[in-house]
Amino acid sequence: MRSVAFTVDVDRDVNLACHGEICSISNAQNGDRSPRFTSSAQGLQRILELLRESGVKGTFFWEGRTADEMSDRLDLAKIMEDHETAVHGYDHEDFPGKETGIPLDEGQVREVLDRAEMALDRTFGRNRRGFRAPYQRTSAPLLAELCRRRYLYDSSDTAPMVSGKVSPYRRPDGLLEAPVCWSLDRKGHKIVSYLWPYHEGKRPMTDYQEMMDQLDEGLLVIATHSWHLVESFSGGLLSKDMVQRGTEDLLSFLRHGQETGVEFVTLADHLRRTNEL
Ligand SMILES: [Zn+2]
User: Fold this and answer.
1) Domain span at residue 168?
2) By the 8 A CB rule, do 247 and 46 touch?
3) Is the pLDDT of residue 116 over 80?
4) Ligand 1 centre and the CA of 138: distance in Å?
5) How far is ligand 1, taken at its centre, from the CA of residue 259, in Å?
6) CA–CA distances in Å: residue 201 to residues 41, 121, 123, 220
7) Total domains, the chain
8) Which pLDDT belongs to residue 33?
9) What is the per-residue pLDDT for 230?
10) Cα of 64 from ligand 1 centre, angstroms
């Protein structure tokens, strides 16, 4: 079976970790670097539209603060009802403190997860969920706490596709890991199934279609951010035409998968079906 999970991190616009600060900021606009959520909300609505058009269920990793902020302007429970919701921190924390210089200890990890879970439960209803760490950066206290709370899975790792195969695996501590994937493109360069370079104009979408073509067996986890469809890190807010082109590219990616025998699944559904959950 060739399965692909289309996953979206729904977090503050163009987020960045700052030295000495636990909460992430947004890339500054007119000198203001406080968190913004407008691009994220607009991109989310576009992504949901194209998933509906193509009949694909996605997995959405929600930052708790973003769920709280967007709840004021969108009926999130309603628009997300066909999709999987999972956890992505509360304030987009850099858990190991790689860039902030503040590694979160056990107590701080518990506090962040409590706040994030409460925000998601309030917004979407109580549920057991999966997790992806902001910046895909985990830490020992974080992973231990995810185990203790019986999270469905973690999806922060990046694993290679070997001979056309990549699959979730169980970590020694018992936590399921559904990694994002890397492989080599036709020129022999490393390509990761995170669409960042596409959105920053560094790779065409066809590179990712070719990556999907390489999959013979298992689960390929494709990842992106909702804001990245309407705002880029290097170019700021995108023109209407560019947003439209990005939407069409994503749609053609999904169609290409469907035309070539890929089954699009949510992470939780895939893990349940393969009896790992
Ligand atoms: Zn994120």
Assistant:
1) 2-273
2) yes
3) yes
4) 12
5) 30
6) 22, 36, 34, 22
7) 1
8) 84
9) 96
10) 11
